[in-house]
Amino acid sequence: SDFAHINFQRADSIASSCSKVSLQNMPLLVNQLTQDLSTQVEQFRAIHTWVCLNIESDHYFSETTLKKRRQLQNNTAAFSRWNAQMQSKIFKRLVRDKKTICSGYAYVVKALANLVDIECKIVDGYARSVRTNTEKIDFPNHSWNVVKLRGKWYFVDATQASGFYNLNENKYVKNYNDGYFLAEPELFVKNHYPLAEKWLLLNDDVALSTFVNGPIVYGNTYKYKVIPVTPKTLVTTIYTGETVVFQF
Fold first, then answer.
1. With 80 as the cut, is the pLDDT of residue 207 above it?
2. Residues 6+ apart with CB under 8 A from 122
3. C-alpha–C-alpha distance, residues 122 and 90, integer Å
4. Radius of gyration for the chain, computed over Cα atoms and rounded to the nearest angstrom
């Protein structure tokens, strides 16, 4: 809401016009995205939009990574060795095919932003789905970004903003969701929990147990900027004759 008065149409248009520019020369790409935009928030918008429109989520590699993490969740050293070996493959595939997993999305957003002196960091933590981190903590499985604009930190999640993988049709569906751009912390914490709690960006702390036991939040909640209030838990016990109250 801090930037509700800014029209991002020009930044989005520039991002769309650079769709064929390669990632192999990031300084050239970021120059084309930002040289005609005067404010940092517009420059970052162009970067974020470009990443969301041009990078495709690598569903099967993501599944492979999660499977490996489950296998090695009690052996941190072994997973670290495996992960280090995979980093070069992740980067090469990202640059060559514009396909990656969440950490690749977060890396590109940070790298491009830093090239124009916009402070941006990668945040690692927990995301939730019907299979993961629901009612109990499984393991860290997601990465996103925080960006500093006008002296204040904001959230972005280019992975979830870019689209989704349709399992029924076995293909990636580009479906840009603007709600993940500078999302409200009260909403973001519903399905993002950082390993470093300072990146909750909330005045009041939210316990990890509250996070894993809460209702599951989906993309349209971000798209329409709805912040759920109650019920506060995913599993709710209600007795015959009582009323269930939903608030947002």
1. yes
2. 103, 106, 107, 110, 143, 144, 145
3. 16
4. 19
| Residue labelled with tokens 């959230």 | 155
> What is the pLDDT, as a whole number, of residue 158?
97
Sheet containing 192-194: give its strands across: 181-183, 152-156, 142-149, 120-127, 192-194
Give pTM, 2 decimals: 0.90
pLDDT in tens, 131-175: 888 888 888 889 999 999 999 999 999 999 999 888 788 888 899
> Exposed/middle/buried for 144, CB within 10 Å: 0-12, 13-18, 19+?
buried
Cis geometry, peptide bond prior to residue 194 (ω within 30 degrees of 0): no
> Is residue 20 within a helix (H) or strand (E), and if so which, with residue range?
none
For 214, residues 6+ apart whose C-beta sits below 8 A from its C-beta are 190, 232, 233, 234
